[in-house]
Amino acid sequence: xxxxxxxxxxxxxxxxxxxxxxxxxxxxxxxxxxxxxxxxxxxxxxxxxxxxxxxxxxxxxxxxxxxxxxxxxxxxxxxxxxxxxxxxxxxxxxxxxxxxxxxxxxxxxxxxxxxxxxxxxxxxxxxxxxxxxxxxxxxxxxxxxxxxxxxxxxxxxxxxxxxxxxxxxxxxxxxxxxxxxxxxxxxxxxxxxxxxxx
Length: 198
What we know:
This protein is mainly alpha-helical. The chain has helices at residues 2-19, 27-34, 38-44, 48-71, 77-99, 106-114, 120-145, 155-176, 180-183, 186-194.
């Protein structure tokens, strides 16, 4: 029963935050929508920031499943990145269908709101973005070894460029309510990956 209540709180918080923003969602709103008393919420989460961290972790688990699926395949390394971008675009398209608008990146949105605050949030966001970048870096390093990209490509720098671009185009997809912008980003991401280190 307690796990059900915590799960319901996190699921409700995710929906509310992605429907507006972390800043706009109050504890009262969350309790009312989840159908729980404040005491129940504070039993699981000592603060609103703790709720935000739980939502961040839930979002990461969903995104990590998508990453694991794409990067765990036997496809050539750059195709794994393409597959992830296609899956990510599909996730945004599905979210748009359910919410009526592109919600943006579930990690990036919270990173914008929670990073820079003192405490655990900034550390956790850095850990998540570093882990995400590592998927790209490892695939690019493999592409270098297999001579699919020039040997002068720095895998870590290329991964950072690719992920940065993906975050930017996801923001544009949210602003324009056009998830297809993310799907169309694969060509530009490939070009960014191919850029040699300077």
